[in-house]
Amino acid sequence: MATRHSGLQLQVIKLYRQSLVAAKAKPPQYRDNWIRFVRSEFAKNRSVSPKDFNTIEYLVRWGNSRLNTLKNPSIQNISSM
């Protein structure tokens, strides 16, 4: 049986997937750097309590703004961010 996720959990999952897709759209020589960056950013916040809604909502908003930056085609490598 499939696990049901809350709306906030779905937002986090969506942000993670979109971030990985955007990272994989970067040039091949920088792609691994971006994927490592995305994974490390999510891992940093893995310890946030699932009941800490304010923090999670803030992190999702912050992540969406970073995603917009990541999608910018003029930014090639993580060091240029």
From TrEMBL:
<feature type="domain" description="Complex 1 LYR protein">
    <location>
        <begin position="11"/>
        <end position="68"/>
    </location>
</feature>
<dbReference type="GO" id="GO:0005759">
    <property type="term" value="C:mitochondrial matrix"/>
</dbReference>
<protein>
    <recommendedName>
        <fullName>Complex 1 LYR protein domain-containing protein</fullName>
    </recommendedName>
</protein>
<comment type="similarity">
    <text>Belongs to the complex I LYR family. SDHAF1 subfamily.</text>
</comment>
<dbReference type="GO" id="GO:0034553">
    <property type="term" value="P:mitochondrial respiratory chain complex II assembly"/>
</dbReference>
<keyword id="KW-0496">Mitochondrion</keyword>
<dbReference type="Pfam" id="PF05347">
    <property type="entry name" value="Complex1_LYR"/>
</dbReference>
<keyword id="KW-0143">Chaperone</keyword>
<dbReference type="InterPro" id="IPR045295">
    <property type="entry name" value="Complex1_LYR_SDHAF1_LYRM8"/>
</dbReference>
<dbReference type="InterPro" id="IPR008011">
    <property type="entry name" value="Complex1_LYR_dom"/>
</dbReference>
